[in-house]
Design a protein that fits this description.
Oligomer: single chain
CATH architecture of the largest domain: Orthogonal Bundle
Protein name: TIGR02678 family protein
Strand content: 5-15%
CATH topology of the largest domain: Arc Repressor Mutant, subunit A
Pfam families: DUF2398
Shape: globular
């Protein structure tokens, strides 16, 4: 491959990573990347449509990849949203903004009153004198500002949430509001479950079902940290195994993902840190503890400690009390290097935080009987502190 071809391939990878990880790329905020997407639009559009079933939108002001999950996960939502009402109000804010043009200005109190009256006509009642209702609206508005859909010209919705009508905010709308929600192939009221969203709309022909399987596999591999063999359906698992070389080549050439076949599945990683992605291990202290846990489990398995062993699918089963005990020992050994929060946490609190972090990254899970499963991919790490100037 010539140097010019390598440069084009690097640009395509950068475009793919940005489109997958950003809500959109605007000409105003990132003119260089926007121009790359414009120049390579047809190749990017065709690749995403063929392998993921994603639509790539491009106009004079921004580019947006209309993504849909292969399998919906809790962490795919907005981090700052606390309850379903936040999402509902987020959508009704978008409904209100449909009647606004770019650069139109309006007051928060006018907006919330129109939304309240509309919902009352649908037998859904909001009361802006109730703090939790105002707080939900404030979270929705903050998210719209983060997306660039709203611009606060004067004031802040946090003050309104705290004090109600004593404070107001002057907003300005952008042209992005009508593009936030992705387009659906049929009326939303015809969907009766999350699974029906995930399934999409495909023909019952062999070609349609093949396309559905391919899209689901690529979506999950691109959007989830790890997918194990046992998490695929039988048809999907067969596709992953028989199309392994094509999948590896596609994801490496276009997305910059390096993959390898392990006993537990086809696993991918980014070889270099990237500002576009949120990678494991994160910069949070709980990620450090997870790496320490991985190293400790590896050592215990090597010396045959207790009744710990690797079960089907490369998983390790633990009682919650066992996990707490291991983390307590790690804390006693390394507490001088831990944050105050983790040093002072009770063993149950620490175990819950670590387990939740591992679950979010597809590295652990739990069953209804309280049993904890450490998944095989965590065994690919072996963490310890490198202390300079003396023994630990």
């Amino acid at each position: 491959m010539s140097k010019a071809d390598e440069n084009v391939r690097d640009i395509l990878k950068r475009c793919v990573q940005a489109l997958l990880n950003r809500n959109w790329i605007t000409k105003q905020e990132d003119p260089e990347l926007f121009n790359h997407i414009r120049v390579h639009y047809e190749e990017l559009r065709d690749w995403f449509r063929e392998y993921c079933g994603f639509a790539l939108l491009l106009n004079r002001q921004f580019a947006k990849l209309e993504k849909a999950p292969g399998k919906a996960r809790a962490w795919m939502g907005f981090d700052n949203f606390a309850e379903p009402r936040d999402y509902a109000l987020f959508c009704y804010c978008l409904w209100y903004l449909e009647g606004k043009n770019e650069m139109d200005q309006f007051l928060l109190t006018d907006m919330v009153e129109e939304i309240r009256e509309y919902l009352a006509g649908q037998d859904v009642f909001l009361d802006w004198t109730i703090y939790t209702h105002r707080l939900s609206m404030a979270r929705a508005l903050k998210q719209l500002k983060a997306l660039g859909v709203l611009v606060a010209v004067d004031g802040d919705e946090s003050e309104w949430a705290r004090s109600g009508h004593e404070h107001n905010v002057l907003y300005e709308s952008s042209n992005l509001g009508r593009y936030v929600l992705r387009r659906f192939p049929r009326d939303l009221t015809t969907y009766d479950s999350i699974a029906s969203f995930e399934d999409g709309t495909y023909s019952d022909t062999s070609e349609g079902q093949l396309k559905k399987r391919r899209h689901r596999v690529y979506r999950r591999l691109l959007q989830e940290p790890v997918v194990y063999d046992w998490q695929w359906s039988e048809d999907e698992r067969y596709y992953v195994r028989t199309q392994r070389h094509t999948i590896l080549e596609n994801l490496s050439g276009f997305a910059g993902l390096e993959g390898q076949r392990y006993r537990e599945g086809l696993l991918f990683f980014y070889p270099e840190p990237s500002g576009e992605m949120y990678l494991f291990p994160t910069g949070r202290g709980v990620s450090d503890i997870c790496l320490l846990l991985a190293g400790e489990l590896r050592r215990r398995l090597a010396r045959g400690a207790g009744d710990m062993y690797i079960e089907e699918g490369g998983r390790i089963g633990l009682a919650m009390a066992e996990l707490e005990g291991i983390l307590l020992q790690l804390k006693e050994k390394h507490k001088s290097l831990w944050s105050r929060q983790h040093r002072q946490a009770r063993s149950s609190e620490l175990a819950e935080e670590v387990l939740a972090h591992l679950e979010e990254w597809g590295l652990a899970g739990r069953e209804g009987d309280g049993r904890v499963w450490i998944y095989a991919a965590l065994g690919r790490w072996n963490g310890d502190y490198d202390v300079f100037g003396g023994d630990e």
